[in-house]
Amino acid sequence: MKLKNKALTHAVKLALTATTAGLFILGTALAADEQTETTKVNKNVEKIAVVGTRSAPRSIGDSPVPIDIIGGEELSKSGNTDMLELLKGAIPSLNVHSMPISDAASLVRPANLRGLPSDSTLILLNGKRRHRASVIAFLGGGINDGAQGADISVIPSIALKQVEVLRDGAAAQYGSDAIAGVINFELKDASEGGTFEVRHGQYFEGDGDTTQISGNVGLPFTDSGFANLSFQYKTADATSRSVQRADAANLIEAGVPDIAPITQVWGAPEVNDDISIFGNVGLELTNSSEFYMFGNYSERDVRGGFYYRNPHTRPGAYSNDGGETLLVGDLTGDMSGNCPTNIMIDDNVLDNPDYISQVANNPDCFAFNEILPGGFTPNFGGNITDTSLTMGTKGEFTGGMLEGAYYDLSGTVGFNESRYFIYDTINASLGPDSPRDFSPGKYSQLEKNFNFDLSKGFDFGLAYDVNVAGGLEWHEETFTVTSGDEASFIAGPLTEQGFGIGSNGFPGFKPSDAGEYTRRNYAAYVDIEAPFTEDFLMGLALRYEDYDTFGSTVNYKLMGQYHLTEDLNIRGSISTGFRAPTVGQANVSNVQTNLSSGVLVDSALLPPTNPIAMQLGGTELEPEESKSYTFGAVYTLGEIFLTIDYYNIQVEDRISQSEKIELSQADKDILEEAGVPNVQSLAQVSFFTNDFDTTTQGVDFVANYATDLLGGSSTFSLAYNWNETEVTRSTDITGAFKVSRLENDLPNHRGTLTWSQQWESFSMFTRANYFGEYQGVHVDYDETAKMADAAITLDAEVTYFFNDSISFSVGAQNLLDQEAEKLDFTVAPNNNWGGKYYETSPYGINGGFYYAKATYTF
């Protein structure tokens, strides 16, 4: 990216006029003195924001930017075992969709902070950048189309001391991806004690049985350190919130055999052998330095439903003219079988005398109705592996020019791999010899990161020392495509007769598709925080970042906080930011099955620099650029704690998947010459593009109150978010329906009201969740869209403490079994896809979930 002179000039002016300004402390939340604790190694090495009890405020009051602190104990009080769902319940500005039948997005679900895609939120672990997942959400529900964010679901709640959510643009501090904010997961660091937990639950509908076993133990690591280890093992059965498809019901009525009672399942996928192991190690080296190391190994198998293939109409397998005539293959090799091409399809082609005499009883001719008369429904799944390791040392210089300065030197390597599988499908071009199960290949993401940070306080005669921090960062990102098994991509002997190539639903990656794509970048940054008076703090961050693919960028952040009174302070920030296109987005290609105007078609995703993509408007990807500002206030009155913050985020040149563009025959011919498989069966193409601008604005409100009530101690928390996104620039490549999804799919209003109650032997936790109106959409089809009603769900948990070590809990998520918005068949009367609810339901489509949990603490 070319350096923008205007932004640089602005940044330099700010640097010259605010040389004593300050910045939010690197990597961790800035907390009030009474809300901090020191590490056991050296009290001056690191200060961390802590929520010690339930009565502590979730939003830090002495920070110039809004921060939420969610303690590990609060995270454990939920029936859901998915970290994304746990955070959604605690942070109203975070939205997570259930993503049924959404290609790879059902394997690693994306999350949206402040209405922006998942890869606009930077994920940290112990303050260090977390690698992104290898999964790209090709069918991401509009807002996440093409997003490639980190896989948060691998992080078990039992491993966490707390989660810190910085709700403010922070690219000037942390680099790419921090447009919406930052979520930092802090691992437990105790050197003794531990917890062992067993949890089991199911949905009110009687499905989705989930069992989770988890544990955490703190161990001494010599006399001067700790080794804190955590694990989680989970299995979850699939769910179904489906009805029989109308076309399948008609086939059953016509006497077509071998059709399942539910041919297409909408629900949560099956998850097997989901295991995560996390470790966090710290060791005092000297009185002024320490060594640290943390990392994880995680793996899971996921399998879910896909679209039903109708035995009369599916292109490339049963009919290539919309179901008028049957697709018949000649098996002789020299086309001597004289196989018919004009067998008409009526209610049941199996009863057609021409089919019986010329195909079913003719060994030289073949139709898939012979072996799959009821059609077929592929199952899509994958094996997801995630691992990381961070090692470093930090401490204080005790001599020389840098005496009194703090340093942090670290290196991180992170790896995520998604190996795809598709079951119960066919490679139609192989005819009767086709296998039914395939491994289409895999994606992998490898990232390496090295950081060196320095900070030192200087006495300039202000209220306190001015803290000056700076550092260097080097980052390498590699995205790899590995080809699948031969049967998943090979063009079989029936290819020239119109039968589709590759595993139907997810064709395998050919050896020519395989490749390794790498990008490197480095950054230099400086942060200054200056307390001009005891009541007035200002901060400045400047960051220069250079990428070996598209050039350099400079970003800044200016923030301030002023105490108007002892109980009331105001705060605000203004910043620029950027999000670099991922290496995967710039290079990946894929064939997807999706619905277009109610018809199931194959669509090719091409690299934006592919000749066809460029012919249709594609260009080499550039970084997104953002400008954001926040303004808010913090008020404390006794046990009442209030924060309110307005934010405005303007993003230019947003990266997303384009509208799926219809292919002409000339386009197909060019693609075929370029080696793209199965071209003649492709109906559409899409590509990643910088094609639109948005403005997102909103308000976050947090209120906490603690008191004695009903013979025990009580804490009440109210959190509310209003969020609105407007697409301020778009082209035909974006598409009107995509614009509508970006603006309307997420509810504009979200809120939670929580009551925690503690007695001597019992505790109780209940949360009411409010979800405002949203756009209901099904199968990414504009004719299904309608505005869905607001709703309230209720979560509750009751715990009995047998003694200091053993407790037993029962609870429910969506206790009153609030039903998702049902599909409106007056809006979409031709819904042939078997769904009951709109996919975009912000609280999911599965309904209430109840559970029991036993915990042993030592």
From TrEMBL:
Q: Where in the cell is it found?
A: Cell outer membrane
Q: Does the keyword Membrane apply?
A: yes
Q: Which residues form the signal peptide?
A: 1-31
Q: Does the keyword Membrane apply?
A: yes
PROSITE patterns membership: TONB_DEPENDENT_REC_3
Pfam families the record matches: Plug (PF07715), TonB_dep_Rec_b-barrel (PF00593)
TonB-dependent receptor-like beta-barrel domain location: 376-815
What membrane topology does the annotation report for this chain? Multi-pass membrane protein
Keywords linked to the UniProt accession: Cell outer membrane, Membrane, Receptor, Signal, TonB box, Transmembrane, Transmembrane beta strand, Transport
Which stretches are annotated as coiled coil? none
Q: Return the InterPro entries for the record.
A: Beta-barrel_TonB, Beta-barrel_TonB_sf, Plug_dom, Plug_dom_sf, TonB-dep_rcpt-like
Judging by the UniProt lineage, the source's domain of life is Bacteria
Q: Which CDD domains does UniProt cross-reference here?
A: ligand_gated_channel
- Which part of the chain is the TonB-dependent receptor plug domain? 62-182
Its family? Belongs to the TonB-dependent receptor family.
Question: What protein is this chain from?
Answer: TonB-dependent receptor
Species in which this protein is naturally found: Pseudoalteromonas prydzensis
